Amino acid sequence: MDLQKLFKPKSMGVVGISKKNPLSPGRIILLKNEFELQVKVYGIHPEGGELEGVQLYSRLDELPEIPDVLVIAVGADDTINYIKQCADLGIPSSIIIGGGFAEIGGEGIKRQDQLQKIAFDNDIAVIGPNCVGIYSPPIMDTIFLPTERITRPPKGSVALISQSGGVLVDQFFVKFKERNIGVSTAVSIGNRAVVDETMLLEYFGTVDDETSNIAFYLEGFKDKRAREFLKLAKKAEDTVITFFGGVTKQGRIATQSHTASLAGNLKILSAALKQHFVIQAKSESELLTYLKVYDVLSQRKKPFGNNTIVYGNVAILSVSGGHGVICADLIGKYGLNAVEFTEEEKDLLKENMNPIAQEIASFNNPIDLTGSVLDTDIENQVRVLSDIQRIECILLLLLPYPPNISFQIGRRLANIITAKKKPVICFIPYVPKYSLIIESLEIANIPVFHSIKEVVQAASALKLRSRVNNLKKSNLFWEK
Amino acid sequence: MDLQKLFKPKSMGVVGISKKNPLSPGRIILLKNEFELQVKVYGIHPEGGELEGVQLYSRLDELPEIPDVLVIAVGADDTINYIKQCADLGIPSSIIIGGGFAEIGGEGIKRQDQLQKIAFDNDIAVIGPNCVGIYSPPIMDTIFLPTERITRPPKGSVALISQSGGVLVDQFFVKFKERNIGVSTAVSIGNRAVVDETMLLEYFGTVDDETSNIAFYLEGFKDKRAREFLKLAKKAEDTVITFFGGVTKQGRIATQSHTASLAGNLKILSAALKQHFVIQAKSESELLTYLKVYDVLSQRKKPFGNNTIVYGNVAILSVSGGHGVICADLIGKYGLNAVEFTEEEKDLLKENMNPIAQEIASFNNPIDLTGSVLDTDIENQVRVLSDIQRIECILLLLLPYPPNISFQIGRRLANIITAKKKPVICFIPYVPKYSLIIESLEIANIPVFHSIKEVVQAASALKLRSRVNNLKKSNLFWEK
Questions:
Q1: Contact A163 B322 (CB under 8 A)
Q2: Helix count and strand count (H, E) for chain B
Q3: Which of A299, A330, A351 is the last residue of a domain?
Q4: Residue A191: which of A171, A167, A164 has the closest Cα?
Q5: Do B456 and B328 fall within a single domain?
Q6: CATH number reported for the structural domain that contains residue B264 in this entry
Q7: Do B253 and A399 touch (CB under 8 A)?
Q8: DSSP string over B306-339
């Protein structure tokens, strides 16, 4: 099946456009693509005519060309008719928005079987049915919700595949935007009657070169496809990350009313994923943090360290003792270890502090530089820590409240960190006035988080990726 | 000791003002109180004169009145001299910013003993040493960091007491502001040489009537004061909430370099806290969610339900199946239970939906209303669920993306929820364009969160508070 034409179409047809209801899904899809995106779009309406200045064709076979993809936003029975037309006309791919298939049981299951047969017999790459659509910037956006209501994530390295359309547009789009995590393509797979997570893993892992990280929200694998998925994941050059819903008893009950699938036995699933180099997020928060790290690091000009390192040994650098304590409490939970400094190292750290602060600062790990800190102190500490071989990652908890910390600190640290090639994860409070410092670091592809927990999760993301890199003998964002 | 004069002073002296360095702590404290707060403030500088238009007095005994509180922002030895002067002049309270006491060991411990003796012998309520100060709006702010650098939380019901100044101004102030959680008073207790967490619990629990909730960040109790703290907590009318740092092995090592105290054996601590009706947050995120719920509910005009209910049985109402699944996965972890609906209840829920959506919606628990939902559907579902006795709390996952949901939905739901008196916790995505909906609910004191996890934590906060209410036979925010 030609997924390239599905995700990067040159031309697209849309059926299911209402002339009366401005909120009809087909109409929303037609107009947002016509006015906002690159794909050439053709609207089909039995009466022909026009809509907000856009010409409508009365039949699919009257279009000036065979479109690469047909978006079908009509009732279930009409959907089957349109898929038959795709087969007849040689339209290679389709996105089916509407429901009324397997998710309603009974008659719906039969309909889905019919749909499946036509698609496979005619090699039509069908997404859905019962999905919110595909977002493939800057080419296409078939998400049927009004543009102004949803939040579009930036362009980036993550192919995002979700079994729930609501989770895709809400939990992911909103939080990707907030955290500046970029997507290459986002896909709501709905009932995944034809194109499923395994086919998508193959496409994004081998064909799509904009993608470096492939993330899945799943409530279970498609029947009998788990083994194939895992096999592909193990070979994938890209980082594969999953987050499963429906993993508890109450959650499993919930999925039965939703997409009729089960994440199954979590322990077996976890072991299988780990064995096949899939990185598992155990919570939404972990997923977002991991993706932020992987997306940012995919874009670094100068990669970090080398791929033989397993990032478990960290140094914590703070200007607040309490932040150090909270951070230290979390690192054990995430399988990390605070390196113990030698007396020589402590002396070196101390020598590199201003004379007033060096008397009250603490040079254990976590290091507490105190509120008497200067810019140069933080810079020097990062330099010294970067040069200590057995420190694999620095967790920098940077509170810009001390009066002598300047707003240049971000840029100055970014240069040092980039030159030293030691992974540094930053905490900076999420306050608009500190965005200058935050942006200085993010422009240099140094990941910044806004909670201590996320900093620790991010360090564990490096460790997880390092393990997979080593096993795959791959060198993604680590130097050879 | 007179803590009233410490926290609600009419007049305040400040020593340690630099005429040369605009960033000296004493100078920052003098000017921010002079220009921004209600307390009458007197600056003391050996040379006298004036600073930015503010008159300076050359000696403490030259002030026109005995101040209620003296802020001391000088070196450790001078600090002792000033505390002696407080004793001589009858100044009843003091806030000591500087370090050089027990936290540095050796000589510092002796100094702190001396300070302690003078304070107790002369009944001087001393906060600190080694603290960032007190924020008591709108009267006083002795936090020595520049006003423009820190974030001030709104006024509210939470007395916030922190053993770490950095955690107070960063993790709490920033996140309180973000979540609209209000403080009555915020205190950095530093080395707590004199005034400690137990005295503060007593003051905020019995004297200060602006406070309904007392929150502590501690890395351990002050020596031999745990029993007294717990005794007071058990009797307190207010809700007492703790979050402990330094509870893991790595965290304990970190506290030794910080404030030389240990949270001790976590299991024993947890059991003792529970037995004494202290609500324990296990993470910062839990603490913030609990405080948000308690602060909002302290301000409700019409209280919720009655105090015999233990809020464990919930209904989940969403317009996205995936959100329901993720929520259902979390509720078990937080000791909550999704109520099972009877067939009659499901029919009633279905009848109250628009005819198109009722065919595709799912009326199990979680309820999935789908993207075809109308405002009136959500309103009706909340009405029906509110009338089902055994549902104790409704978790409403409100995604405003479906095209037919209006921006009036917040106000309309707020009225229904207020009238029905059934606890409802809302999720709404944290996107500026949806602030109209968010604010409609928050104005009516209905708590809104921006992650599914926080919604579940919030429901568990109700359950925890309900348990404590029942045991205390108190009626805080529940009707008699």
A1: yes
A2: 18, 22
A3: A299
A4: A164
A5: yes
A6: 3.40.50.261
A7: no
A8: ETT----EEEEEES-HHHHHHHHHHHTTTT-EEP
CA distance A95 to A108: 18
pLDDT digits (tens, 9 = 90+) for A359-381: 889 999 999 999 899 999 999 99
Q: Do B429 and A258 make contact, defined as CB atoms within 8 angstroms? A: no
Across the interface, whether the CB atoms of B325 and A254 are under 8 A apart is answered yes
Task: With beta carbons under 8 A apart, name residues in chain B contacting A145.
Answer: 371, 401-403
Contact at CB, A258 and B360, closer than 8 angstroms: no
| pLDDT of B321 above 90 | yes
φ, ψ for residue B263 (rounded to 5)?
A: -75, -10
pLDDT of residue A305: 59
Q: pLDDT digit string (tens) for B263-305?
A: 557 888 899 999 999 999 999 999 999 999 999 988 876 666 5
Q: Cβ(B285)–Cβ(A367) under 8 Å?
A: no
B306: distance to nearest CA of chain A, Å? 27
Closest of B403, B428, B401 to residue B413, by C-alpha: B428
User: Three-state SS across B207-252?
Assistant: HCCCCCEEEEEECCCCCCCHHHHHHHHHHCCCEEEEEECCCCHHHH
CB A431 within 8 A of CB A407: no
Rounded to a whole number of angstroms, the distance from the CA of A328 to the nearest CA of chain B is 5
Q: How far is B152 from chain A (nearest CA, A)?
A: 11
Of B23, B325, B371, the CB nearest to A258: B325
Q: Do A104 and B360 touch (CB under 8 A)?
A: yes
Range of the structural domain that residue B171 is part of: 151-299
**Chain B residues lying within 8 Å of A433, measured CB to CB:** 148
Q: Do B99 and A360 touch (CB under 8 A)?
A: yes
- Contacts of the segment B438-441: beta carbons below 8 A, 24+ positions apart: B438/B410, B439/B410, B440/B410, B440/B411, B440/B413, B440/B414, B441/B410, B441/B413, B441/B414, B441/B417
Chain A residues touching residue B368 (CB < 8 angstroms): 257-258
The residue out of B299, B332, B365 marking a domain boundary is B299
Indicate yes or no: CB of A149 within 8 angstroms of CB of B400: yes
- Tokens 């909340």 correspond to B382
Q: How far apart are CA B96 and CA B78, in angstroms?
A: 11
Q: Are A288 and A344 contained in the same domain?
A: no
ipTM confidence: 0.93
Contacts of B431 in chain A (CB under 8 A): 151, 174
Q: Find chain A residues with C-beta within 8 A of B266's C-beta.
A: none
Core vs surface per residue A351-363: b (16+ CB within 10 A) or e: ebbbeebbebbbb
**Closest Cα in chain A, distance from residue B231 (Å):** 27
The reply to whether residue B329 touches residue A149, judged by beta carbons under 8 angstroms, is no
Taking the mean position of all CA atoms in its chain, how far away is CA A99?
Answer: 26
Q: If pLDDT is split at 50, 70 and 90, which confidence band does B193 have?
A: very high
| CB atoms B257 and A362 under 8 Å | yes
| CATH at B124 | 3.40.50.720
> Taking phi first (over 0 means left), then psi (-120 to 50 degrees means alpha), and beta for anything else, what does residue B125 get?
beta
Residues A220 and A195 in one domain: yes
A283 and A308: one domain?
no
B171 and B77 in a common domain: no
Residues of chain B neighbouring A400 (CB-CB closer than 8 A) = 149
Number of structural domains found in chain A: 3
Quick check: is B142 in a domain?
A: no
Query: pTM of the prediction?
Result: 0.94
Contact between residue A298 and residue B143 where contact means Cβ atoms under 8 Å apart: no
Residue A297's pLDDT is: 86
Angle at A393 between CA A392 and CA A396, to 5 degrees: 155
Cβ distance A164 to B321 less than 8 Å, yes or no, reads yes
Compare CB distances from A325 to B149, B254, B329 and report the shortest one's residue.
B254
B287 with B331, same domain: the answer is: no
Of A148, A167, A362, the CB nearest to B326: A167
